[in-house]
Design brief:
Largest interface: A-B, 64 and 63 residues
Number of helices of chain A: 14
Oligomer: homodimer
Distance between the termini of chain A: 47 Å
Helix content of chain A: 25-40%
Structural class of chain A: alpha/beta
Number of domains of chain A: 3
Strand content of chain A: 25-35%
């Protein structure tokens, strides 16, 4: 870091490896030099946001953010950027090796070469900011080790829930708490689709199309609708909350592709909404982490999170219930998170010890990840069956064999010719048993389509 | 601060005025020494919480919190506390003058002697934590000056919304943002009363009684129902958000005492809930700060905040919408906030500069506080009038004279004998004009009770 060219009154060396000078003037202003790798939607938004709120950031921190290097694999992105030619670099290495750069902001996404870039920057003793949840999900413990070995930090506020300072809340706001559980709507695209289906009765296909048209679904939307993006983010926040390296492979994941508008309507009639939830529970001897579509009572606060908004419900032992809601994506909200990381770094780099912020610092003891087979849930089930007096007896007979107990049954229509939907709500059961029962039921001649099973979370558990 | 008595392997002096030693052992653990003044509900809960989650705090911060001094004006409170006799002091001065104490936690509330205690502690170069919003509301700029002059800090996370880390979110999470507006339900007692009236149709009196019976209303509940407590908190958070010393006298305050169950029911029929909102708006040339009962559309997220819960809706320029919800009071949630302040202090005291966290650090330019006369609102009005063909003409004639335009009128009953309620929704108007019109209307012989006017916030404005 270097200071602005203002009249020097007093100078004294403070840091060991950096030229640090203290200026006394009306406004003492210091500069932190950043380099940005990746100048897409987010990268350009960060530059704009820094410029827009420069005066307020300087007033609050005493520091000025100075963009000294930026690169993108596509040189065309800089055409209308008004950035000075001097700071546009050809390669990521030009940024991470630039001795001027204090902070490297990685915004290219994906695993490679993002991982090598971040490791290289950390090895060069640069602080690093990333919004790359896919990379963090599986490589965080390796990356944080490199950061620690080099006495710098890796910051990731914008990797989950963009404009909502969830990472800061978990790491610092709830620092006194044992975090017991979290239920989050942390993927805007899938929430937009499900909200559209719920509010307008639209099909999954049409809702996905609308999300694409409105720019809410990215080119590679499969990560969103398959629940992978939510799982990446859940890996990040559950690792931070529970202090243990939770990776993608640890998380049971179900997407929303098989949710039909019919199921949403039946759920609605029963008093439920369907949401893609990321759930993490810190149990006595184990940890439960899963992403799946979930029936939630309409009255639950998460049921009312509409459109592209993100939200999370956190239960901890002292603060008790905490609910956060806001913008989960977009250039400006993501910039808000990234710039708050810059402020954190400015603060941390002044410290004499405990620099950086290890994601796994909370670990007490490593717990076993609970297998999907052990997890018990209530279920919504839809059978498509011939409307025939013996059909319910056959279905409930098989369920009974697997010790699955029925809470309620509704038959949605009457028809002698074609299959009609039979909706069942099932008491708590192991998913493993249910799957076996359903595969047996689906072989019955009266069953005309594959049965649908969706987990239910009851208000009292939340 | 002193270190725990563990085997010393390596020692080196770091700080100027404190004995600081670095131990290398399996678990490097340092001690921060706290002194607590006031051992009531909160004070004892803090001690319990520190003990309960000692291991997790140490793991996360590397520090152990050591209670070295505590006092209360009532010695009986220590009877069942199991605290060591050595640390129980007779007077606050014994705590703030104790050279062992690094952090003083003020939990006695009120203005005097809390103010003198905090100033004394700061002058002794102790870091101070307080949950005292009444004191901060009017004396914060003086107190933060003393902190700054002594190169220490004053921390107040638990002063607003207890278990919700709102102060951290405003100060650090949204550090890149211009905060535009906030709408908060920040007093649990009044929200409990209004929720009870809304959900059960109960009277104000019965609801207050129930709040008292359940321990939600303190002995001195007048601060809660008169809106003063909300205003104290609004003074704290609007000063932090807007960077300007906003005091109680700047805030227009209306309590909930005059809200009748009838008005709640009429509002409900019209699609609204009534909530006591604390509202702060950062306008172009002025700041608007007010606390009053408000009609909110039922669909608004704040309408669904029930019982003693607190919540706040924040709009800022980058992060956009942000909503926080959680426990606004109680021993454990308040402890969560206080212990997070301890962690903040541990971090800040290691810094080479910018120690402490000034509440007014965000100031750009001082803005004028908007007078109540200038504020425009939509209104719900209830007249109690004789059911007589000419009455509406008379009322609307007077409203028209003051250029007040009626959005809709509903007469709630028919009776030739006694007065019936007439409900009007009024388009945006200045409160000043409305008050003049109402005082003129109330003089009409057909009007049989004082007219009621409650502000409305429309969804689109939120």
């Amino acid at each position: 870091m270097y200071f602005m060219e203002v009249t020097m009154r007093e100078a004294s060396p403070i840091s060991d490896n950096k030229k640090m000078v203290v200026y006394k003037r009306r406004q003492i202003s210091k500069e932190i030099n950043i380099g940005i790798i990746g100048f897409g939607t987010i990268g350009s938004a960060v530059v704009k946001a820094i410029k827009k709120n420069e005066s307020i950031f300087r007033k609050r921190t005493g520091w000025h953010i100075n963009l000294v290097a930026v690169c993108d694999k596509d040189p065309k992105v800089f055409r209308n950027s008004k950035l000075s030619r001097d700071i546009i670099k050809r390669k990521a290495n030009d940024v991470i090796n630039d001795p001027q750069v204090d902070i490297v902001i990685e915004l290219i996404g994906g695993i490679h070469p993002a991982k090598e870039i971040i490791k290289g920057a950390l090895a060069n003793k640069k602080y690093v900011i990333t919004a790359n949840k896919a990379l963090l999900a599986d490589h965080k413990s390796e990356l944080f080790k490199v950061a620690k070995d080099n006495n710098v930090g890796l910051y990731y506020e914008a990797s989950v829930m963009a404009g909502v300072p969830l990472i800061k809340v978990l790491r610092e706001g709830l620092i006194a708490n044992r975090i017991k559980s979290m239920w989050g709507i942390i993927n805007g695209t899938s929430n937009y689709i499900l909200s559209n289906m719920y509010n307008k009765g639209a099909s999954f296909k049409d809702s996905l199309k609308e999300a694409k048209n409105k720019g809410f679904a990215e080119r590679n939307y499969s990560l969103d609708i398959e629940g992978i993006d939510s799982a990446h983010k859940l890996a990040v926040i559950s690792s931070l909350a529970f202090g243990q390296d939770i990776r993608l492979e640890d998380i049971s994941i179900e997407g929303i592709m098989s949710i039909s508008s019919a199921d949403i309507m039946y759920a609605k009639e029963l008093g439920y909404n369907i949401k893609l939830l990321a759930i993490a529970k810190n149990l006595k001897d184990s940890i439960e982490v899963r992403v799946h579509p979930t029936l939630l009572p309409k009255s639950h606060i998460l049921s009312n999170v509409d459109g592209v908004y993100n939200a999370i419900y956190i239960q901890s032992d002292l603060a008790d219930d905490l609910f956060l809601y806001g913008q989960g994506a977009g250039g400006e909200p993501t910039s808000s998170g990234i710039i708050s990381d810059i402020a954190n770094i400015i603060s941390d780099m002044q410290k004499t010890e405990d620099k950086g912020s290890d994601i796994l610092i909370n670990s007490l003891k490593k717990k076993r990840i609970k297998g999907l087979d052990e997890i018990e849930s209530c279920f919504y089930i839809r059978f498509m069956a011939i409307d025939n007096p013996g059909v319910l007896a056959k279905i409930s007979g098989i369920l009974g064999k697997y010790k699955i107990s029925i809470a309620s049954v509704v038959q949605k229509a009457k028809s002698m010719q074609k299959a009609v939907p039979i909706i069942m709500l099932i008491h708590k059961t192991k998913e493993y048993s249910l799957k076996k029962a359903l595969s047996e039921i689906d072989k019955l001649s009266v069953i005309k389509a594959r049965s649908v099973a969706i987990k239910i979370e009851q208000e009292k558990e939340l």
